[in-house]
Amino acid sequence: MKTWSEIVEVQPLASRIITNSIKKDRISHAYLLQGDRGTGKEEMAILIAKVLFCEKLNGIDPCQECSNCKRIDSHNHPDVHWIEPDGKSIKKEQVEKLQKEFTYSGLESNRKVYIIKDADTLTVNASNRILKFLEEPSRQTTAIMLTENSQSIIPTIRSRCQVIDLKPLNPLFFKKQLVDNGIEAQLAVLLSTLTNNLQEAMDWSQEEWFAEARKLMVQLIEILTTSPIDGYLFIHSHLIPHLKDRNDQEKGLDLLLLAFKDILYYQIGNEKKFVFFDPTNALLEKAAMTYSGEQLIDILNAILQAKRKLKQNVQPTLVFEQLTLQMQR
């Protein structure tokens, strides 16, 4: 999404709020863009930065061709600073480095922008240091914070930002986009549930990692339904080695959640809701006979709790061990 007219198709309200500010020359000193993965947070942040630096602005849209636009796209603009988690969190030292940068004049203008990805991973010390920027706003400084989990951001930061809620995109519309781009229908259903980012979905559809992750989730469920005692060994020998970082681990839990949802839908006869499994897969019937409806709901809650623990930086191996014990019947 390169223009506000493209963003308005998927995020009409958020787009209208920001573009009205642009037209009135009242861009906020701090935004908190909150929404699920793939809802356009980063694209909107980049567009805001381009509007502030573009050399040939066309109304509210940047030209996309000038040096500033191109450098912002490549994260190489000297006055647009990006902060991303260093490992599992954004640390105090990263914010201190940003503070030092902001003591200098802009290299090409007095305006500066900083964009914080996964702002919910700010440590307490880092959060307190970010507050200094937000409590002493400069007209020439714009902060843009991106998060999927705004409730993990301390209230004092939230209160100093203009909070923009991004709505989940329509999976049916996105599924059609994927099918039009050559992705098989069943896989398109799964991908449209996991992400609303077209390029990300296309990349996943061709990744060996993603195909193997789907296969491992099927194997785990099969083991849990036939020989539960072997589940613990399976996650250590196959699952954990494949899910190497937090993004992989969260994606794996998303797949597992969708798989168990399908089992529950099979139990209640709602095949139209299937996302992970092909309706003809024999494992559905086997798993549905293994678990009661109450047990399946408990497992779904356990997977959601495991996702929250990962966000809270609980050791991943421990998270998956505990989850496996909860899934064993």
From TrEMBL:
EC top class named in words: transferase
MF (Gene Ontology): 3'-5' exonuclease activity; DNA binding; DNA-directed DNA polymerase activity
Single GO cellular component term: DNA polymerase III complex
Catalytic activity as recorded in UniProt: DNA(n) + a 2'-deoxyribonucleoside 5'-triphosphate = DNA(n+1) + diphosphate
Keyword annotations from UniProtKB, A to Z: DNA replication, DNA-directed DNA polymerase, Nucleotidyltransferase, Transferase
Protein origin, superkingdom: Bacteria
Pfam families in the record: DNA_pol3_delta2, DNApol3-delta_C
InterPro entries, sorted: DNA_pol_HolB, DNA_pol_III_delta_C, DNA_Rep/Repair_Clamp_Loader, P-loop_NTPase
Protein EC: 2.7.7.7
Location of the DNA polymerase III delta subunit C-terminal domain: 239-327
Gene3D superfamilies found in the cross-reference section: P-loop containing nucleotide triphosphate hydrolases
GO biological process: DNA-templated DNA replication
Transmembrane segments: none
Classification via NCBIfam families: holB (TIGR00678), PRK08058.1 (NF005972)
Entry protein name: DNA polymerase III subunit delta'
Organism in which the protein naturally occurs: Oceanobacillus halophilus
